[in-house]
Amino acid sequence: MIMCPFWLHMNETCRGHMQFQDLKLIEPLLRAVRAEGYTEPTPIQAQAIPHVLAGKDLIGCAQTGTGKTAAFALPILQRLMGASSGRPKGTIRVLVLSPTRELAAQIGDSFTAYGRGTGLRSIVIYGGVGQQPQVDAVRRGADILVATPGRLLDLMNQGVVHLNQIEVFVLDEADRMLDMGFIHDVRRVIKALPTRRQTLLFSATMPQDIQDLADRILINPMRVEVTPQATTVDKVDQSVFFVDKQNKRALLEHLLGDKAIRRALVFTRTKHGANKLVQQLDRAHIQAEAIHGNKSQTARERALANFKSGKTRVLVATDIAARGIDVEDVTHVINYDLPNEPESYVHRIGRTARAGASGTAYSFCDAEERKYLQDIEKLIRLRVPPVAEHPYAEVYSGPAVAPSKPARSPRPANARYTPAPQANKSPRRRNRSRRPGDSSSRSQYSNQD
Question: How far apart are alpha carbons 243 and 220 in whole angstroms?
């Protein structure tokens, strides 16, 4: 059973005026942090960094956009610099496991940026591209390896990557690993690691399967929770538009007529739906691009770069591909299709209101999706207020609507929860996990890693 000798729960007001130098980081790392424009650590950085520096196992419960990458990258770099492993130069000493290519690439960029004055080398490996350049990079040697599960296992099976010298293992976005069916691949990777190591697990939510995994792989971990599990970002104004499925596209075009929507991330449930929506928006003279697993890595990187630069105003994404998208000043997240996993809603709207900014989340809900909305509201313990006045409002018979003020924070403990109206027949929800040996667990997402 997991033992948590210390429980930490912080919100933004707890940070005070702590500076990075108060965390006892060495000067090369402080220079790198200043070069990136940061002076004050985020709550998870302030709480996690001292424990990681002390070599303790750690569970970090934190939503996307909270600065958790630096929370493990900075202390890992410092520990590697301060400890002589006695191992040959170029031996992989740190493994960071990530669910998607985009997130892996961004973690790799962070290690490069923060470690520029340390002499430490990091490499990133993921699927969807030719493996030979990655094989060559591994053979040249590196201290830190950032990888997605599929490509890592491929190179392990080929005898290219060896994990027997790992000192620190980071499992990032663990709940997303579960959602994407990678949990069995993760267990295979863990079996190849030394028993004696430091393990850090980060997850926005803590479903039972992830808690069970943590019980097995962490030893007396510290636990840092910077926001209550499965709550939504406080600075996101949330609202739901009830609309017929056939009118969703027209509603989206209507909303995008508002110039206040400067940079919008639109979520669809399927890759085909993302492509189709981009084509429809293009016909309406709205610049949009899609990012999903069927796109080549080059196309995905180009779409993301255009979105970051402002050349593309609208990025249409699936949940899987959007993991790892870290773009500042996303003014709006629009759930064109509601997710059938309520935790995905938390991840989605966390793409706006990053780094202390405010943001807006719109959700479109047709008759078949009302069960999904109810599940979301149960998870976040809030009623998402509906927008009654819009040109494509769906008329339905149900409870009175909630107040028009968008939800910002968890309801009071004594507040009464009123579920969203349900359609007569609701779509079935897919299973959250797959059995070992289920071929669909790899084939469905094989192009993601």
Answer: 49
Mark whether 64 and 194 lie in a shared domain: yes
Q: Which of 204, 225, 246 is the last residue of a domain?
A: 225
The total number of structural domains that make up the chain: 2
Tokens of 368: 């078949």
| Residue 424 pLDDT greater than 60, yes or no | no
E strands present in 314-413: 314-317, 332-335, 359-365
Structure tokens at 151: 């490509």
**Residue 449 pLDDT > 90:** no
Q: End of a domain among 380, 407, 423? A: 380
Please tell me whether residues 209 and 246 are part of one structural domain. no
Half-sphere exposure (Cβ direction) of 26: Cα atoms closer than 13 Å: 16
106-130 confidence digits (pLDDT tens): 899 999 999 998 999 999 999 988 9
- Long-range contact set of residues 299-303: C-beta below 8 Å, sequence gap at least 24: 300/101, 300/102
Verify that 319 and 365 share a domain, yes or no.
yes
How far apart, in whole angstroms, are the C-alpha atoms of residue 143 and residue 122? 6
